[in-house]
Structures are given as C-alpha cells and as structure tokens.
Amino acid sequence: MRRYIRALVLCMVFAVFSGLFVYSKLFYSDVSVASGAKRLVSPPQDPGAGGEEEDGAATGAEQRNPHRANRNVTRDGRDAVGSTESRLPPPMHLAVVTCGERLEETLTMIKSGVLFSIKPLHLHIFAEDQLHASFVEALESWPGFVRSTFTYTLHPISFPSENAKEWKKLFKPCASQRLFLPLILKDVDSVVYVDSDILFLRPVDELWGFLTRFDRSQLAAMAPEHEEPRIAWYNRFAMHPFYGRTGVNSGVMLMNMTRMRSAYFKNDMTPVGLLWEELLMPLLQKYKLNITWGDQDLLNIIFHHNPERLLEFPCKWNYRPDHCIYGSNCASAEEDGVCVMHGNRGVYHDQKQPAFRAVYQAIKKADFFELRARFVC
Questions:
Q1: How far apart are CA 319 and CA 305, in angstroms?
Q2: Cα gap 218→211, rounded to integer Å
Q3: For residues 330 and 10, what is the distance between their CA atoms, to the nearest angstrom?
Q4: Spatial separation of the C-alpha atoms in residues 91 and 98, rounded to whole Å
Q5: Burial class (CB in 10 A: 0-12, 13-18, 19+), 56
Q6: Where does residue 351 rank: exposed (0-12), middle (13-18), buried (19+ CB within 10 A)?
Q7: Does the N-terminal or the C-terminal CB of the chain have fewer CB atoms within 10 Å?
C-alpha cells in the first residue's frame, strides 16, 4: 500500500512540475511563426491499393479517388511571416485514431501533445466523417500563439475495401486503423502513434528521439505490456505467439514507416518473408479466433517472429493503471516519473484511479490565456 501511495504522489507531483517546465518553455520561446495552423482534410484512400506515391503527392492521391468530392481545406500563414517557416525544423508526426464518443478525450490528448513539445508538430487525425467539423471547430478556436506550434491533417477512416467490415469490427471500432498507417501515409517517413486516451507529461521530442536509437534492423518501438510476469496477461492467457516475456502494448507506438513498407517479415504462414501489406490479412485470417485484443495481438504475433525489428522503450513512456493496480510495478516511472500516461480502462472518466483522473481534468480544463498570463512576466 505504501508503494502504491508513493507512486500515486510521484505521478501527480511530476505532472505539476512537468507542466511548469513546458508552459514556461512555450511562452518564453523566441521563435516567431505565423498565427495560423495549416489544416488539411485528406480524401479517403484504400490501404490495400497498390502503387507507390512520390513525396508530396497528395494531389495524385486525390485524383485516384474521383468518386469523392475534393474535401481539402487549407489555411497557411506563410505569407504573413515570409521565410519564417523555412527556418523551422521538420515537424514531428503524431497520429491518433478516434471514433464514437472519443472527441473530447482526443482533443485533450492533442492539447497535452502540443503543450508538451518543443519542435513543431504535424497531427494526423483519423476520425469518422461526422467528427471532422467538430475537430476543425475545436482546434481553430485555440489561440493563435498555440495554433502556430502545429499543423494537422484530418483523415477519414479507411480500410482495404475487400475486408473493410472485418477490420473495422476488430476489437474496438477503428482501432485496427493503426496497422494501415504505413500504407496510407506513404509520404511520411516516421510517426508516433498514440491511442486517444494518452496524455503527454514530457516533451513529445523525447519520445521522437527514440528513432535515433534504432539500429539498422529496427523499425518500431513499444513498451512491454507488463513488467511483472506474475500479473501479466499474455504469458498467462494468450492463445497465440507474443513478443518477449510479457508481450507489448501498442497504445504508444513509434514507427519508421519507410522501413516498414520495404521490410520482409518472417511469419508462420509461408517459408518466405512477406511485406507489411501482404502480411496483415493472412495473419488475421489465421488467428482471428484466438486473439482478444485485436490489432495489438497481431502486432505481438508479428514481432514474436521478428524480435530484431522492435525496440523496447521503458514503461514510463506508456504508464497504465496496470502499473499501479496491484502495487507499483513500473521501475522507470518510480525513478524518473511518468512521461506518457495511458488512461485505458476508462479511468479518466470514473473514480477508480484518482491520480489519472486528476491529471486528465487538469489538462482538459487548462486555459491557454490564463497559463500565458501566469507564466509570462
């Protein structure tokens, strides 16, 4: 019990001081950028469609979907600042998938990501069509000094046309969309994917920095599902292969998608390696009666056969209720604090984990102008 209380207090104190650091960083920044965020609404793509796109070939993608109206909406402040944008470093790419009643939760995640970042961000928001207008309205209502730190693209939910229904109903609606990011975002090299119930408590840049730690074989990074095998799920209940001792959790996933698109993956279905786009459907057909957690289970199967392709990062970068329900069992968070909070099990919206709920409510209710006035002399 004492260890649990210690971890809970550590989590809340770290969140407060991390907030002070980021807010002061944000408002003392001397980088002058345009007041407007650039936004795009991407037309739907069939992830199963063949063919390669050249860099920056968004227009070509639209032309290959003539049955859909052109829904691109763009606003860019470059003309207001001249060459300022050219002086900015390349953006970090952050992707999220949201369906159903997850709008508010996703916006709170984005808010934490925008505040807890140093370099510019480009957001890839995959959402059901009826949510797009609400995202635009909410994000465009943020102050200009906040909007200037990020750009975003709204994408429709899209699966391979011949199996779309099967993919969409896997585990939770739209959850398996993350598997198809390398096939949809063909002009993006790397991306941080997060679930909608993620909160950043450290700069996104630090997570992005794991890309530089990849060796020549690695193309993705995730945290272990558990650190303590005695309470872990995969090694006790899984009816399929899984990565390592306790499996991995895909709520926070760093992807080098250039490598993912070109690599051949070992598997237990064919004697030869398969490309990512060739692997997914056969894998689902083989294991769909044996998987519980949908696309996360498929990722565990893939990296069970290809462990050299995966980099593990510490659990402090994907800290979940499981790490403190049965006592504290995330050593890196005890030592350094929580870097990314993952509020699965709906803990942001009930009273089962007060620390998780308190951090979520603090970020959700934070007022940009009040923070600016408080932290800028």
A1: 26
A2: 9
A3: 12
A4: 22
A5: exposed
A6: exposed
A7: C
Q: Which residues make beta-bridge pairs with 127?
A: 98, 156
Long-range contacts of 207-213 (CB under 8 A, 24+ apart): 207/252, 207/254, 207/313, 207/317, 207/339, 207/340, 208/92, 208/119, 208/254, 210/254, 210/311, 210/313, 211/254, 211/256, 213/311
Going by C-alpha positions, the residue among 211, 298, 288, 302 that lies closest to residue 256 is 211
Q: From first to last of its 377 residues, what are the pLDDT tens digits of the chain?
A: 555 455 554 555 454 445 544 444 444 343 333 334 556 666 667 776 654 433 333 334 333 332 232 233 333 433 333 344 456 789 999 999 999 999 999 999 999 999 989 999 999 999 999 999 999 999 999 999 999 999 999 999 999 888 888 888 787 778 899 999 999 999 999 999 999 999 999 999 999 999 999 999 999 999 999 988 888 889 999 999 999 999 999 999 999 999 999 999 999 999 999 999 999 999 999 999 999 998 999 999 999 999 999 999 999 999 999 999 888 899 999 999 999 999 998 999 999 999 999 999 999 999 988 877 765 54
Integer CA distances (angstroms), 297 to 13, 103, 288, in order: 34, 25, 10
User: Using only C-alpha atoms, what is the Rg of the chain?
Assistant: 21
What is the pTM for the complete model shown? Answer: 0.82
DSSP 324: T
CB 359 within 8 A of CB 11: yes
Q: Is 154 helix (H, G, I), strand (E, B) or coil?
A: strand
- Residues 134 and 248: their CA atoms lie apart, in Å, by 33
**Residue 326 CB contacts under 8 Å (≥ 6 apart), including other chains:** 228, 231
Residue type, 32: S
Residue 119 host element (H or E): none
172 touches 193 (CB < 8 A): no
Q: Return the sign of the alpha-carbon dihedral for residues 5, 9, 12, 15.
A: negative
